[in-house]
C-alpha cells in the first residue's frame, strides 16, 4: 500500500448514486419473488460490483478523524491512497474470483474492476500526517482533525508584550498610586521582619515552598483587624479552578494558582473557587524565571498564567482591575491588570525589604479608598444576597417566564449593578441572575450578557421590600456590559439616535434600549467636578463632600473625612482618586497623554427584547422570517435614522422568544461598529436617502482634537464580509449599504449549510468549502466560486420555498458583485431583497421542526458552538511598537510620569448624548496612530487563545469584534 501525491478524482463519485439506486431496487424486488441465480442484484458478494462504503469518526480529544472503508476480499496490495489538492482518494482494483459445483454444473465467477472514493481533508494537512492500516478487508485512514494553523493559538508574548509596562521608580510609588487606601499604612519595623526566614527554594519541593510562603504571608497580615484580614491557602497541586460561570466553563480556560487569597475577613475552604478568591500568587524557583526581564520574554507560560488568573478574577467579581503577585525565587513583582494593559512594579527582594512592601500591598489591597472589599472592586457592583435571590425567583414565577427555573440555576453567581441612564441622568439598579455570554478576552471589550430584572423594591425599616403599589411582575430584560475604546462612539448613542428618529410604535426589526450609558464618562464628569472643587477649596478650610456626586463616590467608601488625622496623606477632597474608576488610565500612566485613545470606558445598557440566537431556529420558516425582519430593521435604521450597522453577522440577528401578533420575528442588534450621519436635520425628510451611501460621510469616532483619517472600512465579522471588502487590491473601497445586504446572504447560507439537511454532495463540509478564513484571496475566491458556479447545486431536500429563496437571492448577488473592471450591474437594494424574502415566505410547503445540530466531522475554522464569533480583520500595526516596548522593559530608562498626565478635555471625548457635529473624525493623536489603535482588539479567544492565520499575522495586526458566541440578544 503506497502513499503518493499525484492523482485525484472528483470530490464525490457517481458510484454512490448507483449504489443508492441498486439498494432501492433490491428493496422493491425482494418482496416480488425469489432472486434468480446470476442476477446482479441477488446480493452475491462475488458478482456484485464493489462500491466501498465510507464511515467517518471524529475524536475531538485526540484531534483525530478516522475514515473507515469497507473493502471485502481485498488486500493492501490492491489499494492505492493518493493525496492531491487537499483531497484524499482511495482507489484500487479488484480481481476476486470464486468456483463452485451446483447440481452437476461447474460455476466459475470472476470480477475485475476499479473503484475510487474521495474525501476532502482539512486545510493544511500534510501527507506524512496521514496514517493508514488495513485488516480483514477494512481500511482505516486517520489524519488530524485540525492543523496547528487552524487550532486556537495560546497566548504568545507578542500579543502581550505591547501591553506590559513597568510603572513606578519604586514599589512604594506603585502601591501608593494604584492602590490608594482609606487608612494609612504604618510599618512598625520589627514584628514581621523575619516573616520569610523559613522560605527557601528547594528543587522538587514546591508544595513545601508554597507552605512556607503561606506561613510568611499569614504572619504579615496577622496584625490586621479581623474584618480586613485575608486568608492564604496553598492550592498548588490541587485541581484547576473552573471558569467562574459553570454554564460557560467548557468554553474557557481552567487555571491552577499556586496560592489563593480570600476576601478580607473571610476564610477559604479546602476546595475554593473563584467566587471566594480575591487575588492569587504564582511562584517559580529561580529569580531568572522572572518573565518581565529581557531574558524572560521567551517564558510565555508565566505571563499566560498571570493573565488567565487576572481574567478569571475580573469576570468572577466584576472587577475594574485585578491585582496578582508573582514570586520568582527571592524576587517579587506586583502586577495590575485592567482591560487595556498591565502595569508591573519594579522587582524587590522578598527577604530584604520584601516583608514591609508585601504587608503594605495587602494593607492597601484590603483597605480600598472606594468600595468595601478590595482594591480594584467596582463600587456599583454587589453580590446577590439570599433575599435578592428569593425576590428574583418570585418575580420570574409571577411573570410565568418560560423555563425560569433553568435561568436561575446559577443565580448565586449573579450580582446587583447600577446602570447609568444618560437620558435621565440617574442610575437604575438591576439584578443580574444568568450570564448568557462572556467574551473571555482579557485585553478587550470583555462583553458580558446577562438576563436581568430591574430592582423595583423600596427601602423600609432598613431593608428592601417589594413595592406594594406595583401590581405587575417585573419583565425580564437583557443587560449588556462592555469596555468601549475612547476613540469609538458608545453603542448606547446609536440606540438613542434610533429612539429619537423612529417612533416606538413604528420600530420594526430593531432591538429597543430601555436605559443605559457610558458609566466611565459619567465617572469622569464627577471626577473633574471633584478636581475643580479641590482646586477651589483651600486645604486649611475643607468643604463638605459635594452633593452632586452620585453613589459612585458615596457607596459607603471611606473618604478624606474618615482619615483627617493623617495630614497630607491624601488630598482633602470628596473624590481623592488619581483617576476615575470606570475609565482606565493605564496607558496614560505608563506612556503619557498621547495614548489616551487606547483607554477604555465601561458601558452598561439594558435591552428590552429577549431572543434566541439565529442558529436556534425552530423551523427554516422562522429563520427566514427573522432574517427578513432584520433586513427591514436595517432599512429603517438607515433611511430614518441614518445609522449604518456595518456588522451583519450570525451573532447580531436574534429570533424573538415569544413573538406577538403583527410584530417582528427577528431583530438586529449590536451597534458597536456602526456609524451614523452627524448632519441629520432635526426634522426627518420623508424622502429616503440613497440605498448605497458610503460610510465615509458618517461619523464613527469621538470628536475632539485634530482631523484624522476615516476608520478603515474592513470592519465587522470576517466570515460575512462582502466580497468587495475582501479585495485589498481594489483601491478606494468604502463601506456601503449594499455590502451589508450582501452580508445577509452569507448569514443565510452559513446557517442553512450548518443547521439543515440540505442534501448537498459535500454534506457537512459544505460550509467549510464556502467560508474560508485567513487569506483574503482564498476567501473571496471561495465565495465567488460558490455564487457563480456551485450555488445551483444546492437544492434543499423537501423544502422548495427555501431552495427558491436561495436561488433568487443568489441571482441578485451575481448582479451585485463587481466585474473585473469594477463595474456593478445592479447593487443590492432593500426592495429587491425584501421582495424575494416575501415571495418565499408566502409559498406553501415549509417543513416544520427542520432544525438540525451542526455536525462537522472535519473541523472548520470555527467550532459549531462558536458560531458568529468574529475572527479578525485589521490595519497595519505601529512599526516597531512591540520591540520598543520590550526595550523599555529591559532598559533602565523607564518613562514613569511623576504625576498622572492630565486627562483630555471634554471636547476630546464624546458628548453624553449629542452626536458629533461634523462628519470628520477628530482625535487627539495622529491619524496613523489612531487608525492602528482604534482597530486594535486583542485576539485572545474565549479560552484565552487566539484564532490566527499566517496571512493575517504576517504583516497586519488583527481586528476582532467580540460578540462572543450568540447566546443572547446582545453579544
UniProtKB/TrEMBL annotation:
<keyword id="KW-0346">Stress response</keyword>
<protein>
    <submittedName>
        <fullName>Small heat shock protein C4</fullName>
    </submittedName>
</protein>
<dbReference type="InterPro" id="IPR007052">
    <property type="entry name" value="CS_dom"/>
</dbReference>
<dbReference type="InterPro" id="IPR040976">
    <property type="entry name" value="Pkinase_fungal"/>
</dbReference>
<feature type="domain" description="CS">
    <location>
        <begin position="49"/>
        <end position="156"/>
    </location>
</feature>
<comment type="similarity">
    <text>Belongs to the small heat shock protein (HSP20) family.</text>
</comment>
<feature type="compositionally biased region" description="Low complexity">
    <location>
        <begin position="546"/>
        <end position="555"/>
    </location>
</feature>
<feature type="region of interest" description="Disordered">
    <location>
        <begin position="530"/>
        <end position="555"/>
    </location>
</feature>
<dbReference type="InterPro" id="IPR002068">
    <property type="entry name" value="A-crystallin/Hsp20_dom"/>
</dbReference>
<feature type="region of interest" description="Disordered">
    <location>
        <begin position="680"/>
        <end position="708"/>
    </location>
</feature>
<dbReference type="Pfam" id="PF17667">
    <property type="entry name" value="Pkinase_fungal"/>
</dbReference>
<dbReference type="InterPro" id="IPR008978">
    <property type="entry name" value="HSP20-like_chaperone"/>
</dbReference>
<feature type="domain" description="SHSP">
    <location>
        <begin position="45"/>
        <end position="160"/>
    </location>
</feature>
<feature type="compositionally biased region" description="Low complexity">
    <location>
        <begin position="693"/>
        <end position="707"/>
    </location>
</feature>
<dbReference type="InterPro" id="IPR011009">
    <property type="entry name" value="Kinase-like_dom_sf"/>
</dbReference>
<dbReference type="Pfam" id="PF00011">
    <property type="entry name" value="HSP20"/>
</dbReference>
Amino acid at each position: 500500500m503506497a502513499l503518493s501525491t499525484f492523482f485525484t478524482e472528483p470530490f464525490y463519485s457517481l458510484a454512490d448514486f448507483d449504489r443508492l439506486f441498486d439498494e432501492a431496487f433490491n428493496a422493491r424486488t425482494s418482496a416480488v419473488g425469489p432472486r434468480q441465480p446470476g442476477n446482479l442484484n441477488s446480493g452475491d458478494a462475488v458478482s456484485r460490483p464493489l462500491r466501498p462504503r465510507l464511515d467517518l469518526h471524529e475524536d475531538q480529544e485526540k484531534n483525530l478523524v478516522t475514515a473507515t472503508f469497507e473493502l471485502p476480499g481485498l488486500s493492501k496490495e490492491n489499494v492505492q491512497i493518493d493525496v492531491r489538492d487537499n483531497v484524499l482518494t482511495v482507489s484500487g482494483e479488484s480481481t476476486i474470483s470464486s468456483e463452485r459445483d451446483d447440481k452437476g454444473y461447474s460455476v466459475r465467477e470472476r470480477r475485475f474492476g476499479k473503484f475510487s472514493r474521495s474525501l476532502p481533508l482539512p486545510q493544511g494537512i500534510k501527507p506524512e500526517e496521514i496514517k493508514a492500516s488495513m485488516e480483514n478487508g477494512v481500511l482505516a485512514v486517520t489524519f488530524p482533525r485540525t492543523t496547528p494553523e487552524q487550532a486556537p493559538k495560546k497566548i504568545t508574548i507578542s500579543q502581550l508584550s505591547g501591553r506590559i509596562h513597568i510603572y513606578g521608580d519604586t514599589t512604594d510609588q506603585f502601591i501608593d498610586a494604584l492602590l490608594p487606601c482609606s487608612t494609612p499604612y504604618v510599618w512598625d519595623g520589627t514584628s514581621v521582619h523575619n516573616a520569610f526566614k523559613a522560605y527557601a527554594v528547594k528543587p522538587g519541593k514546591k508544595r513545601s515552598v508554597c507552605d512556607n510562603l503561606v506561613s510568611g504571608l499569614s504572619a504579615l497580615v496577622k496584625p490586621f483587624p479581623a474584618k480586613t484580614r485575608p486568608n492564604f491557602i496553598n492550592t498548588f497541586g490541587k485541581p484547576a479552578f473552573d471558569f467562574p460561570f459553570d454554564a460557560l466553563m467548557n468554553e474557557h480556560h481552567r487555571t491552577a494558582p499556586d496560592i489563593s487569597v480570600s476576601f478580607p475577613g473571610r476564610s477559604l475552604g479546602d476546595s475554593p473557587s473563584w467566587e471566594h478568591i480575591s487575588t492569587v500568587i504564582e511562584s517559580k524557583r529561580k529569580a531568572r524565571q522572572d518573565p518581565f526581564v529581557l531574558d524572560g520574554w521567551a517564558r510565555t507560560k508565566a505571563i499566560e498564567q498571570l493573565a488567565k488568573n487576572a481574567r478569571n478574577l475580573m469576570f468572577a467579581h466584576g472587577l475594574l482591575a485585578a491585582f496578582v503577585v508573582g514570586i520568582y525565587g527571592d524576587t517579587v513583582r506586583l502586577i495590575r491588570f485592567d482591560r487595556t494593559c498591565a502595569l508591573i512594579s519594579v522587582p524587590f527582594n522578598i527577604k530584604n525589604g520584601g516583608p514591609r512592601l508585601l504587608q503594605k500591598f495587602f494593607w492597601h489591597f484590603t483597605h480600598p479608598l472606594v468600595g468595601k472589599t478590595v482594591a480594584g472592586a467596582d463600587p456599583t457592583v454587589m453580590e446577590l444576597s439570599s433575599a435578592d435571590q428569593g425576590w428574583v425567583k418570585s418575580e420570574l414565577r409571577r411573570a410565568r417566564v418560560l423555563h425560569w427555573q433553568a435561568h436561575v440555576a446559577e443565580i448565586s453567581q449573579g450580582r446587583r449593578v447600577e446602570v447609568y441612564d444618560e437620558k435621565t441622568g440617574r442610575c437604575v439598579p438591576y439584578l443580574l441572575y444568568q450570564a448568557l455570554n462572556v467574551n473571555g478576552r482579557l485585553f478587550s471589550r470583555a462583553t458580558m450578557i446577562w438576563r436581568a430584572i430591574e430592582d423595583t423594591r423600596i427601602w423600609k425599616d432598613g431593608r428592601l421590600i417589594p413595592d406594594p403599589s406595583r401590581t405587575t411582575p417585573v419583565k425580564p430584560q437583557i443587560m449588556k456590559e462592555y469596555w468601549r475604546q475612547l476613540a469609538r462612539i458608545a453603542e448606547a448613542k446609536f440606540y438613542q439616535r434610533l429612539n429619537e428618529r423612529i417612533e416606538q410604535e413604528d420600530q420594526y426589526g430593531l432591538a429597543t434600549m430601555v436605559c443605559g450609558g457610558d458609566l466611565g464618562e459619567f465617572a469622569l464628569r464627577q471626577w473633574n467636578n471633584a478636581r475643580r472643587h479641590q482646586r477651589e477649596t483651600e486645604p486649611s478650610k475643607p468643604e463638605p463632600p459635594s452633593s452632586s456626586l452620585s453613589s459612585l463616590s458615596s457607596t459607603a467608601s471611606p473618604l478624606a473625612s474618615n482619615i483627617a488625622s493623617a495630614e497630607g496623606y491624601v488630598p482633602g477632597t470628596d473624590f481623592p482618586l488619581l483617576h476615575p474608576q470606570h475609565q482606565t488610565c493605564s496607558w496614560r500612566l505608563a506612556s503619557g497623554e498621547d495614548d489616551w485613545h487606547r483607554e477604555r470606558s465601561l458601558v452598561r445598557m439594558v435591552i428590552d427584547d429577549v431572543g434566541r440566537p439565529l442558529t436556534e431556529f425552530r423551523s427554516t420558516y422562522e429563520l427566514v422570517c427573522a432574517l427578513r425582519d432584520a433586513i427591514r430593521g436595517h432599512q429603517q435604521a438607515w433611511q430614518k435614522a441614518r445609522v449604518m450597522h456595518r456588522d451583519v453577522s450570525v451573532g447580531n440577528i436574534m429570533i424573538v422568544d415569544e413573538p406577538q401578533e403583527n410584530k417582528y420575528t427577528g431583530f438586529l442588534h449590536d451597534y458597536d461598529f456602526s456609524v451614523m450621519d452627524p448632519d441629520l436635520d432635526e426634522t426627518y425628510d420623508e424622502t429616503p436617502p440613497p440605498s448605497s451611501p458610503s460610510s465615509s460621510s458618517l461619523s464613527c469616532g469621538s470628536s475632539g482634537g485634530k482631523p484624522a483619517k476615516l476608520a478603515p472600512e474592513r470592519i465587522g465579522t470576517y466570515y460575512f464580509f462582502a466580497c468587495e471588502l475582501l479585495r485589498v487590491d481594489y483601491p478606494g473601497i468604502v463601506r456601503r449599504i449594499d455590502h451589508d445586504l450582501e452580508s445577509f446572504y452569507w448569514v443565510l447560507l452559513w446557517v442553512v449549510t450548518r443547521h439543515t439537511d440540505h442534501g448537498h454532495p459535500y454534506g457537512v463540509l459544505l460550509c467549510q468549502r464556502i467560508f474560508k478564513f485567513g487569506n483574503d484571496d482564498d476567501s473571496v475566491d471561495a465565495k465567488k466560486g460558490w455564487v457563480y458556479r456551485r450555488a445551483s447545486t444546492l437544492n434543499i431536500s423537501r423544502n422548495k420555498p427555501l431552495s427558491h429563496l436561495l436561488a433568487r437571492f443568489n441571482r441578485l448577488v451575481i448582479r451585485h458583485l463587481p466585474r473585473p473592471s469594477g463595474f456593478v450591474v445592479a447593487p443590492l437594494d432593500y426592495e429587491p431583497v425584501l421582495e424575494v424574502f416575501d415571495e418565499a415566505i408566502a409559498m406553501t410547503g415549509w417543513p416544520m421542526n427542520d432544525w438540525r445540530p451542526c455536525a462537522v466531522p472535519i473541523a472548520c475554522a470555527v467550532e459549531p458552538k462558536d458560531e458568529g464569533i468574529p475572527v479578525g480583520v485589521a490595519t497595519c500595526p505601529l512599526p516597531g511598537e512591540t520591540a520598543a516596548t520590550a526595550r523599555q522593559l529591559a532598559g533602565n530608562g523607564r518613562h514613569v510620569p511623576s504625576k498622572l498626565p492630565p486627562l483630555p478635555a471634554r471636547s476630546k471625548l464624546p458628548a453624553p448624548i449629542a452626536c458629533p457635529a461634523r462628519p470628520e473624525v477628530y482625535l487627539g493623536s495622529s491619524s496613523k496612530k489612531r487608525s492602528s489603535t482604534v482597530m486594535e482588539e486583542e485576539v485572545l479567544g474565549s479560552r484565552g487563545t487566539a484564532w490566527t492565520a499566517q496571512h493575517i499575522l504576517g504583516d497586519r495586526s488583527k481586528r476582532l469584534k467580540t460578540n462572543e458566541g450568540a447566546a443572547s440578544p446582545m453579544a
